[in-house]
Specification:
Blueprint lengths: L1 H23 L6 E8 L10 E4 L2 E17 L5 E12 L2 H4 L5 E6 L6 E6 L13 E3 L6 H21 L1 H24 L1 H29 L3 H55 L1 H20 L2 H8 L1 H16 L9
Parallel strand pairs: 1-7, 2-6
Antiparallel strand pairs: 1-4, 2-3, 3-4, 5-6
Helix pairs in contact: 7-8
């Protein structure tokens, strides 16, 4: 009986120690320590888990109330609550300087725990014993107090400006009535405007459908673009050399124009040199014509004597009628 009782007690002690070890989350590996300053503890308890992106990496060991005391070792900043975190040895190397620390809950009514956002990989990492700042949870009592103060201020404003508020409400009601009357009076115009807008939208829809049909699957547009590229390349190959030859052509044209101007200058000089003999010749011609008109000389007499002219015409006609008279006499 004594052996049985002793065995039962021994087994119970072993089970108790096992439950304590399992439920107490005792760790045999080395731990690192981080200190997080929060504006409020939000009922965070020692032993609460610490998680990184939902994975448990340690627990809260101490929740220490500083109550606004300054920390001379860390820039003399004011500390309300400092929470000590015991985490795995590798955790500080996973956290960066811009990491964020929150106090949140497991579910809507669950226990409080610390959630950590590791931060940006570009920032330097932490080391064991660093002190960082955390963000407290949303406090409903503060929201309620702020909302209450805002409501009190609104109530005071309404009481002080009751007459103005009534006048404002009356003006709004009058404006609404006028708007209703205007809409009622211009109901047909509003309908016409709405119909025109609807027609415009239908035109836009039809135009879009037409463009869609014209574009198709885009093959035709691609072919057109390819053809334009080919034409551009051909123009570049054929026209560019022609443009390159233009300076030489321009030089030849300029030289030809200069030669033409020199020829014109020489012709002008020649004409100027022969102007006096030409004028003398024209004066002689005028004198001959004047003598002919006055009947001087044989030709002048012939032209001025009408009877002689008629005899000469009669002789020519007789020769045409009797050409043998030129060859022998009768």
């Amino acid at each position: 009986m004594e052996v049985k009782v002793g065995a039962l007690i021994l087994i119970s002690l072993v089970l108790l120690v096992g439950f304590i070890v399992v439920l107490g989350d005792f760790r045999c590996s080395e731990q690192s320590v981080l200190y997080v300053d929060f504006p409020t503890s939000a009922d965070l308890k020692a032993g609460a888990p610490v998680k990184i992106t939902g994975v448990t990496v340690g627990k809260v060991t101490v929740v220490d109330l500083w109550g606004g005391v300054r920390d001379p070792e860390h820039d003399n900043k004011i500390v309300q609550v400092r929470v000590t975190l015991s985490v795995d040895e590798k955790v500080p190397g996973l956290l960066h300087r811009d990491a964020r620390y929150y106090i949140t809950t497991l579910g809507a009514l669950g226990e409080k725990y610390v959630e950590i956002d590791p931060g940006s990989p570009d920032e330097p990492t932490l080391k064991s014993g660093d002190v960082v700042d955390g963000k407290g949870p949303l406090r409903l009592e503060h929201l309620g107090a702020d909302a209450s103060s805002i409501l009190d201020e609104l109530d005071g404003i309404l009481k002080e400006n009751r007459a103005n508020v009534k006048e404002l409400v009356k003006n709004i009601r009058d404006i609404s009535d006028q708007a209703n009357e205007m809409i009622a009076e211009n109901r047909e115009s509003v309908k016409v405007a709405i119909d025109k807008v609807r027609e415009s939208m239908e035109h836009v829809t039809n135009l879009t459908e037409t463009l869609d049909l014209a574009a198709g699957d885009g093959k035709d547009l691609k072919q057109i673009i390819a053809s334009l590229k080919n034409i551009t390349s051909k123009l570049d190959r054929e026209v560019t050399p022609a443009f390159k030859r233009i300076p030489g052509i321009a030089e030849k044209v300029e030289k030809t124009v200069e030669e033409l101007f020199s020829l014109l200058s020489e012709g002008r000089a020649t004409i100027a040199d022969g102007r006096v003999p030409f004028q003398d010749a024209m004066e002689n011609v005028r004198a001959v014509i004047r003598d002919l008109k006055e009947g001087k000389g044989s030709i002048g007499a012939l032209l001025s004597d009408r009877e002689l002219y008629d005899d000469l015409v009669e002789i020519i006609k007789d020769i045409k009628r009797h050409p043998w008279k030129v060859l022998w006499k009768e």
